[in-house]
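quick one before i forget lol
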Amino acid sequence: MISADNLTHCYGARTALDKLSFHAGERQIFGLLGPNGGGKSTLFRILATMMIPTEGRATVAGFDVATQPGEVRRRLGVVFQSQSLDRKLTVAENLTAQGRFYGLHGASLGARIDEILERLRLADRRRDLVETLSGGLARRVEIARALLHQPSVLLLDEPSTGLDPGARHDLIELLDELRRSYPVTILLTTHILEEADRCDRLLLLHRGSRVAEGSPAELKARVGGDVVVLTAGRPDDLRSRIAERFGVRPLVADGHLRVEIPNGHRFIADVIEAFPGEIVSVALHKPTLEDVFLDETGESI
């Protein structure tokens, strides 16, 4: 449903996207994960037909975003990072205005609004002014508005921005429910690991380039074993001595030593015994997407 082939975009001398290729299939939740400045927003704008790429090609539902933008927009729902609802109108009035942009009117528009409000559990909020809604409910209304004309592709730019943890969890559950019950492919940009973990497939972006792609489980399996994080007074000095003693390749990230190793609990006991008094604290966890990103780029999300 969404494809990119050698997609490149430059802002003057700066390359924001560098020969990026990927494919998001039908009814997938496809995530673009990476830090700010990694190229996510540029890719989002290109897919939303707001920008034409410098080189390469992108298609949405089989239509080229550069040469067939009108066809793309008919099949596309978009939720931007910044709220774009009219806060002085009610929920139903916002949806009515959106429906008319797409040629819907009369009884058919009313029926469609009723259906989408019911599906997104907003029926009891139809007469509420948007300015009275919580951030989580307002985001839900934006998704309802984007789905009103029954698009085959839904683009979400950092959808959890500004939401508290409870509202973020509800949003993730909603997207999962939509993917199961509604014939739509969802592409979202995010730097939130919890959100990325619920995607069917992820593309990790760093400085405009593809770092890795796969399901969250596949990506984390690339790390393997356990991840041990050590806090020490002189991490760079300790790194070389741990590498020599244990035959591992520690990484210093954010001032901490990070070691990937099977049976991490045994390694912790051995390393503390080998370097008494030098290690201030230890932590042990299974691989996360943050670990994958650190492995591939040497930087954190």
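fyi The first helix runs from residue 40 to 47.
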